[in-house]
Design a protein that fits this description.
Helices cover about 65% and strands about 5% of the residues. With about 200 residues, it is mainly alpha-helical. The termini are far apart. The protein has one domain.
Length: about 200
């Protein structure tokens, strides 16, 4: 398969119609909301059963320990949240080729040679998003996304391009792969939150 180039078209794909900066920013905002909601819901789902068991055994309401208020405790929570954000991006883009935000706004991620996004490319994109493209509230990404491909720094390093679903160089993966990615992400989220809750309460 020929690589995606800066020619006007590629395998019937109109490169002049790449997803706009606004649409990609919107997808990122949706993903941030979904990730944060999943983290909070998982915290409640994990904490409540533990709190009930603790109360039945001791007759007292559970309390967070000193570690939860320490710098180390807060760093643990931040590290877990960051890890889960990476997991979210890598799981969805590797398994399905699009995060929920991108899927809702009709976008998919492909390699520049037209192949589907793999784990290595997804990991590079995620790392660059947090440590390069996300700097100055996304200004780095905004300035780097120039026509015709509108690639941010992470796209260039990972050799990926974000396309509109209707302009995909190959059919998007079946939707069941999206569900698989969601299940994997939610399982990892609950395990990670369980570790934080134990560290904060025991």
């Amino acid at each position: 398969m020929s690589s995606i180039s800066i020619a006007p078209t590629y395998s019937g794909v109109n490169l002049a119609e790449r997803p706009s900066r606004r649409r990609r920013a919107g997808a990122l905002l949706i993903d941030a909301c979904i990730h944060n909601a999943a983290f909070l819901v998982s915290f409640v789902v994990v904490y409540l059963p533990l709190a009930i068991v603790y109360y039945l055994i001791t007759g007292r309401d559970p309390e967070f320990n000193r570690f939860s208020e320490s710098v180390a405790g807060n760093l643990l929570a931040y590290a877990v949240s960051l890890f889960l954000a990476f997991t979210y991006l890598i799981a969805f883009e590797t398994i399905y080729g699009a995060t929920p935000g991108k899927w809702l706004l009709g976008m998919h991620v492909f390699k520049s040679d037209g192949r589907r996004c793999d784990a290595r490319a997804a990991a590079i994109r995620a790392l660059c998003l947090f440590f390069i493209d996300g700097l100055l509230y996304g200004l780095v990404a905004y300035l780097s996304m120039q026509p015709p491909l509108y690639q941010r720094v992470g796209d260039r390093i990972a050799k990926t391009v974000v396309v509109k679903r209707r302009e995909s160089p190959s059919p998007p993966p079946p939707f069941w792969r999206f569900l698989v990615a969601a299940v994997i992400y939610l399982i990892i989220t609950k395990v990670a939150v369980f570790i934080v809750v134990l560290a904060w309460t025991i």
